[in-house]
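Quick one from the shared queue. A colleague (R.T.) flagged Oxoglutarate/iron-dependent dioxygenase as missing a structural entry in our internal table.

Convert sequence to structure tokens.
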Amino acid sequence: MVNSNEDYDRSDDLKRFEESKTGVKGLVDAGHNTIPRIFVHPSEALSDLKPVSDTPPESIPVIDLSGFSSDRHAALVDQVSRAAREYGFFQIVNHGIPQAKLDRTITAVKAFHEQPAEARAGFYTRESGTGFSYMSNVDLLQSKAASWRDTMTVRLGPADPSLWEHVPEICRDAVAEWDREVVRLGGLVLDLVGEGLGLSARRLRELSCLEGRIMVGHYYPYCPQPDLTLGLRSHADPGLLTVLLQDHMGGLQIKHREVWVDVKPVPGAVVINVGDLLQIMSNDIYKSVDHRVLANSCQEPRVSIAVFLNPGKREELYGPLPELILPEKPALYQRFTFSEFMRRFFTKELDNKSLKNYFKI
């Protein structure tokens, strides 16, 4: 229940919630009809949840990949490049992944989150030593307000054969199969965005940009007070690209021209978005944009699966690519190791967080 007592001690509620090890799903299963105060966001963070205009909103580009290997290749490069420059987000269809695999991935992640509480609790941890973890809110202990979702995380790369023995059996095969599809599709999209910068087709792959993959499987259960919280607060992703599979429920929004735009689910589509590292490497040609997820007001849970494509070589230096540094456009960012980059990402709460400004020259 929302508590107005000035003596309210948030740490007690945090401790109680964290020690339950059952996440937001546990609160829903317990029959809560109000959200605990730790999930209530300040009014200024919620002031723009409702549309302020009757003007039909924009929609992000939907790109058909069916002509990738044909004479449409140049047109595809142009479409992808334009979407990455103007929106930072786009959806792709006819990408070669059968609908059955998309459905199986979503079903498996949902099944993990809907196991009995005691089964989920056995995986609840903020440590990622085994390569698999389950928790609610990665920044729960740092944030001013928690968001209404739970997350399973799988560290898919660099390759570790022992990983799969730690991934729960209920979703293991589907996650492994999805990872193979993401490597194929992610490589293809990396080639397209690289060519859109005037680089050789495999330039970004050569930087081990497919090797540091991390998957998160988000579960957004019904929220009894969706106007008081969010499913995922506004933020920009830190890596190169994110490959996102969302179900039919909707709720994802991106900020475009200072207006929140819905990323409406398209049947069979996969969502791609630019991360901060790619904006930096492109020397600000591509745009990493803020996005968020609204709290789920429907009885049916929302599920999404994001795979972050990150460099596998964490101690190498990254910054604007040499090919994109010109006399008329010098480097806009300093160089840094990916380890330092991610360390700075995780030392702050996930709230309007972007690393771009920190590394600006």
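The longest helix spans residues 169-196.
Confidence is low (pLDDT under 50) at residues 1-5.
Added to the table.
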